[in-house]
Structure formats: C-alpha cells, structure tokens
Amino acid sequence: MVGFIGGGRMAQAMARGFIYSGLVRPNNIFISDPSAQVRDEFKELGVNIAESNQEVVSRSQLIVVSVKPNVVKPVLQEVASVVSKDNIVVSIAAGIKLATIEELLPSGTRVIRVMPNTPCLVQAGAAVVAPGTSADPRDSELVVELLRSVGVCEQGSEKLLDAVTGLSGSGPAYAFAAIEAMADGGVKMGLPRDLSIKLAAQTMLGAAKMVIETGKHPGQLKDEVCSPAGTTIAAVHCLERNGFRAALMDAVECATLRARELGNQN
Fold first, then answer.
1. What is the pLDDT of residues 75-86, one digit of tens each?
2. How many CB atoms lie within 10 A of CB 178?
3. Band of the pLDDT at 69, cuts 50, 70, 90?
4. What is the DSSP letter of 44?
5. What b/e string do you get for 193-203 counting C-beta neighbours within 10 Å, with b at 16 or more?
6. Considering only CA atoms, which of 16, 46, 183, 158 is closest in space to residue 100?
7. Alpha carbon 169 to chain centroid, angstroms
8. Counts of helices then strands in the chain (DSSP H, E)
9. 39 touches 33 (CB < 8 A)
10. Residues 116, 176: contact at Cβ < 8 Å?
11. What is the structure's pLDDT at 266?
12. Mean of the per-residue pLDDT values for the chain?
C-alpha cells in the first residue's frame, strides 16, 4: 500500500505515474488532503480517499509526505503516534533535511528523502533518493524501483539534494519556458501557433533523447548541428550574446539556494 499525505501536483504526478505504469493498483493507494477539489481529482483515479493523515499512515506501508515545506513539521507531529517501524516514510519536501524528519518521528523510523519532478506523470521523471540513518538498503531499492517505473532514478547522498532540486526538480519549468519562447519565435516568423508549439516541444524532446541515447556530450552534439557559416551557428552566437547559458546556470543556482533557505527555516 502506498499513501500520500498531501495531494499537490507532485503527488498527483507520482500517483498517476505509478498507476499508468501498472506497478501500483489504484485500490492500493490512499491519499489525504484538505482540499475537496484535490480529493475529487484523486477519486477520478480510483484511489482511496482517507479521512485523515493518520488513516493514510495506518493503512499504508510506504507513506509519501508531499506537503509544502512549511507544513511538514505539524503534519509529522500529527502522525508520529501511528508511525511504526513497518512504515517507510518518504519525503519529497524541498529543503527539509533527513535529520529534521527523523527528529519529529519515533526513533528508528525508516526515512527516505526524494527529489522527483513532475514529468514522472508521463513516465519521464528524474529523481534522486537519499536514505536516512535507519533506512534499510531494501527500502531504498523499493523507492528506486517505484520511481524508475516513471522515469530515471538514482541514489545519492543528501548533500546533493538541494542541487538536484535546483536542476531537475525545478528544471521542467525552465524547459517549458524555453519551449514557449521558441514557439513564440516561430509565430513571429510566420508559423501557426499550434504547429510552432508542437515543433518546439518535439525538438526539445528529440534533443534530450539524443543526449541520453547516444551518450555523447551535449557540446559535441551541438557542434554536429553547427555547420560552418550556417544558420545554427548564427543562432548559437545570438544565444551566447544574450547570456543564454549563464541565465540557465543562474536559474539552477537560485533554485538551489532557495532550497537551502527552506531547509534552514524549518
């Protein structure tokens, strides 16, 4: 049984991904959320709607804490009395450290911290898993298996997770903004809006697949597209002149630093 405390976008993406992959049946998922709208959205998936956060814990082996970082503490304090060593508690809250979670739960609780991203909804997610002090290696393997059913998942140390948040956790927003901007460029140059968006999105998808499947460095793949005195090198020059790569690097840095701030506030 898999339980979700909180039914935000990430929880919905994970739940839908688990169901669509066939790894978890809808009737083996429990969810609690104060929003009637959110509960209705989950009902459409055929999952169980719990009356309380404590019910989610008591009915589930693996509990995903998928609430906002500032709500993690009161939620864990609320459910601590029903958490047992049979439970695996998985936190996807940005910036909330394992030590903080472990302090709020009974001694010996098996805790794992994960930073996933929303493309797990379409089985194209990217996640990193970091186990707590009492987690068994098999616990991490279970969580990795679940997340690999909806994308890529790697194990790592907790010290990496803020940077993971800045890169892949927040990264889909950067990609969406790039797709939108490229599509706007196509419209500016005469393409119909729907065709422009489709071409921009497919181009990003294709480029990502080439990096993953060829194993080549993205710089090498970029060079292979840039013919001498051609259109692409002219465009790349324009991107460089406008600080394209520096802007993306800054975005990852800003999101990483914000994740650290969230961890220090809670």
1. 999 999 999 989
2. 15
3. confident
4. T
5. eeebbeebbee
6. 158
7. 5
8. 12, 8
9. yes
10. no
11. 62
12. 93
